[in-house]
Protein 1
Amino acid sequence: MDSSSTIFSLSGIRVALGETREIYLKVSESFLSSAIQIPVTVIRGVKPGPTAFVFAAIHGDEINGADIVRRLIFDVDHERLVGTLIAVPVVNIAGFLNQSRYLLYHRDLNRFFPGVKHGNNAERVAHKLFTEIVQKCDFGIDLHTAASGRLNLPHVRGDMGQPRVRKLARAFGATVLVDQAGVRGSLRREATDAGIPTILFEAGETGRFSQKISLVGLRGVLQVLAEMGMWHSDEEFVRPPFQVIVKGSEWLRAEKGGILDLAVKPGDLLYTGDLIGSILNPFGKTVTQIRSTCTGIVIGVTTAPLTIPGTGIIHIARLKKTLSLVERSLKGKKRKKK
Ligand SMILES: [Zn+2]
């Protein structure tokens, strides 16, 4: 890592201070013998400083991050940038082309970092990304959405036990910070373990752009860059109404098959015993009511109305010590006990 260097190059292309370059990074080849190339925009401030990556669509159908990266490239005055920003709107090209989460052979790219030079197809792509981009950086941000059929509250995930990760996560400005290092092979876990603190932003749903989420994401990324001395703005940081670090999160699942009538949405505060929704049979009669088995904040919901035993209904982050803080800040729009 040579973050303060005046020289930066990618794919053999040098980018000088004050320059912005669009570069293709070859990571694989297609069945048509053509190159699979990842579009990378390298933005260098006039002054040297830290180097950071912002990745989107590592899961090829989680495209909202591509819109956040586009705004980062085009809606932002590059003269205010210090250091080097490596912006990648579409990391998983094969998945993006197929509107799928996966690379070819159903491999999840976000399970193969830091990669293997002569490994399988996913390991090779991961290795290229890790050596050509991630290892040149001081920190990184990985933009995701909920998986297919689900909708997420904007929140940040990362290993909050690590002060440098926590600093990035807090600056992003989300209300909920989920303290999860990530599974082995995930980018945030492997980059952080390699000394490059990395956070993951989760928001929205697959296959869609939400302007609201794009703006929240853009602001979050800029606040992280500002915190790290890479971005100068006269604007005050936007402080969320509350900010809690949650350790445990779990999916509450259907016990019955049928048609779901969901009564909650992302961001709702639920207490043990609260009604989450009902499962109906095809005649429209209630088969069962689903109630929360814990107290916490809803960070994800299913968007699919059909259930069988085991279908994930809501993803809830448990609140314990921080419950009163959340209750206080939600006061005024406090929900009635159902
Ligand atoms: Zn994802």
Protein 2
Amino acid sequence: MPAMNDHDSRQRFLFDGTDIRGEITSLATSYQTLVAQQQYPEPVAKLFGEFLVAASLLSATLKFSGIVTIQAMGNGPLSAIMAECSQGTKLRGIVRGDFDAGSKAKCLQDFLGNASLAITIEPEGGERYQGIVPMESDNLSGCLEHYFNQSEQLPTQIKISADKQLATGVLVQQMPNRDTAEKVAADWAHISALMQTLQAEEQLSLSHAEQLYRLFHEDGVRLFEPEALHFFCSCSRQRTEQALISLGSEEIYDICKEQGSVQITCEFCNEKYEFHKNHVDDMFSKPPPIIH
Ligand SMILES: [Zn+2]
């Protein structure tokens, strides 16, 4: 088992004398909590775990605080899979579709059919932007490498593995720098060749430090302090209320009349919000909220 302190954490690493950076992350409790809430069968859970790890790794590459969302919409057994990492450390996500049929899938295309991957970045207080990546690889890491190479023009290698308990991944990335093109190319060829030797069994059984030592012990690798990651759903009674208000009073009063109250279950965390008629009256008699 990986050392306890690696669970639900992410660590940056750097190599002395190069401009290659890395991130390594392992999700245990956060991953298991999300899977248990929706009771995904193991193959679906593992793919979902990969998406969560990817969101965590991508979030670490941002220079600012914000929300990273990785989402695939397809026409396979799974119709959608989504993972979100906000403020670098908070994870949530969801899978939709026929989980039983999805359980027979072997690769990304089996799960999602004809799909593309959308990577959305919302900087705090800034404008959101989205990159669409065709699913040209049969695994998520390959698709993300393609995204970084094409849209960001940063050579990147990613390895993600998941089992029932743990979802874990490593990213190495060439940063823009002032070295000569020859040195940059040689450094990258060396580090990426070593990365390719990393096996899923090693990722799932070794600590972050052990994995990096095994791969890069001759390359002056420096591992930074871990950052804790956790499952966090940003839903609240107030946000649910705002969503209801946006549907309009007529629709909400109709539901209220039909069902006695309006009940909303958060699709991310299963939290239940119930609004009785007197709440609904309050909701629509209040002045519109001030948006901060
Ligand atoms: Zn929620």
